[in-house]
Amino acid sequence: MEKLLVVSALKDDCYQKNAAHFLERHLEDVKSGAEKFAQMSGAKILFLLPEGAKAEGLDNVRYGICTPTGDNPYSCAQQLKGNLPRPMIQDDYIAEYDENEVNVITVESAYWLAKGTDIKHITVNGEVKEIAMGTKLNEVVDAADAKAVLVGGLKGRLILPEQLGEYEVSTDFLYDSVDVIPKSACIVDTLIKHLGNTWNYSCGKCVVCREGTLQFKTICEEMVAGKAKPADIDLLKEVGELIKEGSYCPYGQNWPQAVIDAITLFADEFDAHIKRKTCPANVCFQKGATYVILPDKCTGCTDCIDECDEMAIEGKKGFIHMIDQDMCESCGKCVEACDEEAIVIVEGKMPKLPKKLTRVGKF
Ligand code: SF4
Ligand code: SF4
Ligand code: SF4
Fold first, then answer.
1. Which domain-ending residue is among 163, 183, 203?
2. What is the pTM of this model?
3. Are residues 268 and 293 in the same domain?
4. Pocket residue to mutate for ligand 2, from 278, 292, 298, most atoms within 8 A of Cβ
5. What would the pLDDT profile of 212-223 be if each residue is shown by its tens digit?
6. Measured in angstroms, how far is the CA atom of residue 145 from the centroid of ligand 3?
């Protein structure tokens, strides 16, 4: 059987632009590294590029979609045949295309073969930087405004800004990208968007990975809709570990870790969403949510009044407080102030509420 060396530029995820950078800035080095590798194995070369990528100066080019399995020979062979990019990971498995045995080298590995591994290309907040191996990540990224940092994209880790100095740039996939999550962001809201992308990139070969991304996103969406339960946190952690163990390829074995990191590092923020139906970053619960004060829970302590910048809460000591819906901006700040958990978001039918100031216990 003839040999085919596929030079794959399909490994970028939505946080990474590294392959595009290699094609635009280092194409000659990539070609030279690929030729070196092809000579060693006696293979002919085929470039597998993302749709729309420039292919000037390349002879044998095909196009596919970016996927976490973009370096897997079987997955690449499937893309060449027009099928879904699903991988095979057994060592003794031979991927075939057009009566050729398929080997794969990424554009990054081809570059390293030509130039050595002194430099790592990292997408930092959407922009590709060339960084010396061994550099600590706190020298790579400005984390002054960071609440957290996502290293390694969709299958990476979520860390605190002060942990950046513990990470030294190497050839590991964790250093493919670094993304700052700003202090103003809500971690739950950020996770929902992240999980939407995680789902998009899951190939669907195994149910735990594919369904897991969707179920995790749904649970996080319930958190910002005020419908989640405290037990959901343990559920995410336990199921996350099961997905890591039960997934077929490194993508499913890694993506749940960022979710587990988020839950562990920002437990208070998740707690606020689930138990108090409020968002400390003032991002969630704002879009037209109806906040009311439950008359049977309000003790008339007045603590909520000072929290409301809109002066939408009417009340005085010992009286059931009321929210004026015309003035309320649905910011959720008053929820944090109420130790009685008397302020809630209402969906659908409104509970019976007092129309005028009423003494606690008299409604
Ligand atoms: S773990 Fe996810 S990406 Fe990997 S084979 Fe299974 S479904 Fe596909
Ligand atoms: S903080 Fe809670 S208990 Fe106190 S007045 Fe406001 S709604 Fe009532
Ligand atoms: S949700 Fe915001 S605007 Fe509405 S009553 Fe509470 S603090 Fe005031």
1. 183
2. 0.80
3. no
4. 298
5. 999 999 999 999
6. 27
